[in-house]
Specification:
The protein is an alpha/beta fold and 427 residues long. It contains 18 helices and 14 strands. Keywords: ATP-binding, Cell inner membrane, Cell membrane, Membrane, Nucleotide-binding, Transport.
């Protein structure tokens, strides 16, 4: 039997008591991190989409992804804004506190970028003749040459920040580095830095670069401390970003609430995609209760209008955020399997049929379809070849076939030389 034939369900447990507000609406406590990719969740609460479905979102701003993970696991949150790999890691038993987690809804695509310190970028430019308009891949090659020169002089290797080891940021940063010929485990030092602290850490010289979600890349560039060298769209446009995470026993016990939540989030995502709503969305996101960043930066980020640095270099990235279009909310199991392939590539997970099934089971298109109907779901297979379509290529030309996952991982020239040891929460 093909290892992608079955997607396992994880269910069971006892229902939690319902919490109602003064108007009788079901209250869902939701943890989130202050990032623009929480827009759909915040808009659903702020602009009446959940209220229309008889729900109230009690949004709690958290300080780290590990906190979000733990508070969901311990029942302090009903649902959570999560990194797309977090449910997969949980189903594989990875990390310091793995607890089964699923997602029936993605919060969209896009939003990440890679920023290097102005010091490091100037050295790349001076040492390699790098153009101000260089591509993401050209930037990676220039960094590789710069690191080789640093090694030859016996200098310390660059320290680069990611937000969490089981994160799109970690895998995208590693993918970009490796595409340029840089070994992320030997040629640089990766550390964990919470998103709101990345710009400060860069300015203080504690790190030399980072991969993080908006608006923190442009905060660094506008402060004159960073240069944006790659965006998520440069690495793989369809890469899932953030998702709504929930415990499978909670979802099993509250099927109507899950469906109503998905309907509300779908409506909010459609609203967030419309440019005419971006002024209102940016104003809401800038509120201290949410992102607490300058509204003008958030507004430009929503439009994909980037200040790459403080020297006046600009870039416009079409569809930098896709909150709904192109089935951006669909929890596609082949996306989960690609994330699993990167966990294998970098020594976080072992290759096995059972692990592949567990990874795919974290993404639940059945719950999405039950809420929104097949007419609002893509017509192609849930498990499909990724990166083979024009406009959706991986930056290094690789194509991901989930049915040949071990061969895909083995096909990379740069991958972990270390045997699988543990699912550490350390970078």
């Amino acid at each position: 039997m093909d290892m992608m034939t079955k997607i396992a369900d994880v269910s069971g447990g006892l229902p939690l008591p319902a919490r109602l507000n003064s108007e009788g609406a079901k209250v869902l406590r939701a943890g989130f991190i202050p990032l623009v990719d929480a827009s759909v969740l915040i808009a659903a609460a702020e602009f009446g989409f959940t209220r229309k479905e008889g729900l109230t979102l009690d949004l709690v701003k958290d300080v780290s992804w590990a906190n979000v993970r733990d508070r969901l696991a311990f029942g302090q949150y009903d649902i959570a804004h999560m990194l797309s790999p977090m449910p997969i890691a949980s189903m594989l038993g990875l990390g310091s506190n793995p607890s089964p987690t699923i997602t029936p809804f993605s919060l969209g695509r896009g939003g990440n970028a890679i920023t290097l310190s102005t010091r490091l970028f100037e050295r790349m430019r001076d040492g390699t003749g790098l153009s101000e308009t260089a591509s993401a891949l050209d930037n990676a090659h220039a960094l590789a040459k710069t690191i080789a020169a640093m090694k030859a002089r016996g200098e310390p290797l660059p320290t680069l920040g990611v937000t969490y080891p089981f994160s799109s940021h970690n895998y995208e940063f590693r993918y970009w580095l490796a595409a340029g010929g840089i070994d992320p485990d030997r040629d640089v030092k990766l550390v964990v830095v919470p998103p709101p602290l990345t710009s400060d850490a860069l300015e203080a010289g504690a790190i030399d670069g980072f991969c993080v979600g908006a608006p923190w890349n442009m905060v660094a560039s506008e402060r004159g401390v960073g240069r944006i060298v790659a965006a998520k769209q440069d690495i793989w446009p369809s890469a899932p970003e953030k998702v709504i995470g929930m415990r499978p026993d909670w979802a099993e016990s509250h099927p109507e609430t899950v469906s109503r939540l998905i309907v509300a989030l779908d409506a909010a995502a459609r609203w967030c995609d419309l440019a005419e709503n971006h002024d209102a969305l940016a104003a809401a996101l800038a509120d201290p209760r949410y992102i607490a960043a300058p509204v003008d930066i958030i507004r430009r980020v929503l439009a994909g209008e980037f200040s790459l640095d403080a020297r006046g270099n600009r870039r416009v990235i079409a569809d930098y955020f896709k909150f709904h279009s192109g089935f951006a909310n669909y929890p596609r199991p082949s996306h989960a399997l690609w994330i699993y392939s990167q966990m294998i590539r970098w020594g976080q997970a072992e290759t096995s049929l059972n692990h592949a099934r567990a990874a795919a089971s974290a993404y639940r298109p059945d719950l999405y379809r039950a809420a929104l109907g097949d007419e609002n779901a893509p017509e192609d297979a849930d498990i499909r070849i990724e990166g083979g379509d024009e406009g959706d290529r991986f930056m290094d030309g690789h194509v991901f076939d989930p049915t040949a996952l071990p061969d895909y991982v083995a096909g990379f020239a740069v991958r972990s030389a270390l045997p699988f040891a543990c699912g550490s929460d350390e970078a």
